Amino acid sequence: MPSKTLGESLFERGVSRRGFLKYCTALASIMALPPTAASAIAAALEKAKKPSVIWLEFQACTGCTESLTRSHAPTLEDLIFDSISLDSHDTLQAAAGHGAEQAREQAMKDNWGNYLLLVDGSVPLGNPGFSTIGGVSNLEMLQETAKGAAAVIAIGTCAAYGGLPKASPNPTGAVAVSDVIKDKPVINIPGCPPVPVVITGVLAHYLTFGTIPELDLHGRPLAFYGQSIHDRCYRRPFYEKGRFAESFDDEGAKEGWCLYKLGCKGPITYNACATVKWNDGVSFPIESGHPCLGCSEPDFWDKGSFYQALAQGQWGSAAGLGTAAAVGIAAGAGAALLARRKQHQAREEQP
Ligand code: SF4
Ligand code: SF4
Predict the structure, then answer these.
(1) What separation in Å is there between the alpha carbon of 93 and the centre of ligand 1?
(2) Using a 6 Å cutoff on CB, does residue 285 contact ligand 2?
(3) Range of 117's domain?
(4) Are residues 185 and 262 in the same domain?
(5) Quick check: pTM over 0.90?
(6) How confident is the model at residue 71 (pLDDT cuts 50, 70, 90)?
(7) Is the CB of 293 under 6 A from ligand 2?
(8) 3-state SS of the chain?
């Protein structure tokens, strides 16, 4: 019996055509496409076959899976997740032991060359025994499972850039998925954890267009990581006017002024938090009064200086920022701007 299309599955689950179109319009908006693209997305998604997805979890805290599954129903994430065939997920599946391994092997066999491989967590190279599943090292399992994948998606900063496990002194020799897989497209969806809508949005893009999205120089989909937190931050008018909170409980903080001096890394951090937000669009860290820590940037943990202004930390153009620290916050803001310009320039120069 032929497998159902996504449209058939959704309509069988009681999703109305109107609700489906509304969902596609929201999707077009998330992907920064014009509203007219919604009908094209709807037509493509309706006919799409459910892709097989295998999700492997390596050196991680499970936060990325939590991020996706803690959302409240019914959401875009639910709809998208219902639209895939999650054939193997070490954390979510009921099967354990040999049964779990068989599920992965069967999914690979049945969908060779076509399945998507999602990975969260970093890969330890220091010792094959540091992290194993069913006695198989993470490295071996990644290499073996990636062979038949159409594409590999690295979910979260650990999989995308090594993350916390890779932080100095990196006792396990942790590396990113892209350090191991060189012969397949690897899409990075960094964040600690990543925004759930971004995870599902990338899956939706694949379902709709059958291709991987356009990526930036750090392997991130430009549709979601093309603008900095600062570019879309609602506190930006205060930044422009030089109104900064000096402590977490001063009058500036109470008035909602810019958090730059409290360590905000928004000016050089690329992610969708300020637009799609968290918890079904309720809020995001800066809206809750906390500066952006830069969790979707490479080496964010080792760069540290979470509560120091950019001018004083190791972010962006380190040499320029070091000088800027001596002349105060205004120069620091200028150095941050310079770092952002350099990032933009690097993006434009990439092939
Ligand atoms: S520095 Fe941070 S809080 Fe201030 S405008 Fe930029 S992103 Fe928003
Ligand atoms: S606001 Fe910054 S630190 Fe917080 S989740 Fe978004 S990118 Fe990560």
Answers:
(1) 40
(2) yes
(3) 50-225
(4) no
(5) no
(6) low
(7) yes
(8) CCCCEHHHHHHHCCCCHHHHHHHHHHHHHHCCCCCCHHHHHHHHHHHCECCEEEEEECECCCHHHHHHHCCCCCCHHHHHHHCCEEEEECCCCCCCHHHHHHHHHHHHHHCCCCEEEEEECEEECCCCCCCEECCEEHHHHHHHHHCCEEEEEEEHHHHHHCHHHHCCCCCCCEECHHHHCCCCCEEEECCCCCCHHHHHHHHHHHHHHCCCCCECCCCCEHHHHCCECHHHCCCHHHHHHCCECCCCCCHHHHCCCECHHHCCCHHHCECCHHHHCECCCCECHHHHCCCCCCCCCCCHHHHCCCCCCHHHCCCCCHHHHHHHHHHCHHHHHHHHHHHHHHHHHHHHHCC
